[in-house]
Amino acid sequence: MTDASRSAPPFVRRLLAEFLGTALLVTVVVGSGVAAQQLSPTDTGLQLLENSMATVFGLAVLIVMLGPISGAHFNPVVSAVDWLLGRRRGTGMTGSSAGAYALVQIAGGIVGAVLANVMFDLSAFQLSTKQRITPGHVVGEVVATAGLILLIFALARTGRAALSAAAVGAYIGAAYWFTSSTSFANPAVTIGRIFSDTFAGIAPSSAPAFIAAQCFGGLIGLALVVVLYPDATATADNAVVPHGAGPARQSADAAHPGDPDPRGDLPGPG
Fold first, then answer.
1. Residue 188: CA count within 13 A, CB half-sphere
2. How far apart are CA 184 and CA 29, in angstroms?
3. What whole-number distance in Å separates Cα of residue 186 and Cα of residue 144?
4. Helix (H) or strand (E) holding 116
5. Rounded to 5 degrees, what are φ and ψ at 248?
6. Is the dihedral of CA 147, 153, 156, 158 positive or negative?
7. pTM, full prediction
8. What is the pLDDT of residues 14-44, one digit of tens each?
9. What whole-number distance in Å separates Cα of residue 173 and Cα of residue 155?
10. By C-alpha distance, which of 81, 58, 220 is closest to 147?
11. How far is CA 216 from the centre of its chain?
12. I need a labelling partner for 62 at 20 to 30 A (CA). Which of 70, 72, 171, 228 fits?
């Protein structure tokens, strides 16, 4: 393996990709929700269909576009699990990298909501009044996040990370409908959606319970990955998709630029 194939994009570039991807994801979710309200004002079911379809396609495109740079996590829970899975073997992300990812993901989520508001001639800065907190919604978020984590790391473990764009998009699209919460499954997206008082918004008072449920669901997903795929720690750094300098790169360098690679050559997924 050559030095060029082993090097990952600079850390700042990865952070930019995570910021941009999360921002555009929230823009897709919020913007399509506003459009659905305007196009189908009397049909909530059709609004949800329009919102979910836009999210499926938008998420898949963002993973394809930005995955080779940062892995296309766009989700603090995914980044945290990536770190937790690989911390003993030196695969996956470092703790500081996961924390930095989470910060830019949250910032991106907020910017994405503001951008959607502006595009539809709404007040740029607003707080949602849409109350979503019920016991069923909390359970829905646990289920949605656990399933998402299991899917992402199962694909990485079995050498099928290239399918992530289609598979993750399809899962989120389905989870819009089979979970009572419409599958936020992402703390950064949840925080971003606080800042748009539209169809896709969530009231600030509802967000903490959603985020707690997502973190708990992430832990359940992590436990399932460890039980079902015991070698997942060797491929933690392939989530959501392998990211590096070129096709030969099968695992990302999670260290900051200039830091020595603590892992050496790692086996590819499979």
1. 31
2. 10
3. 9
4. helix 95-119
5. -70, -15
6. negative
7. 0.85
8. 999 999 999 999 999 999 999 999 999 999 9
9. 18
10. 220
11. 16
12. 228
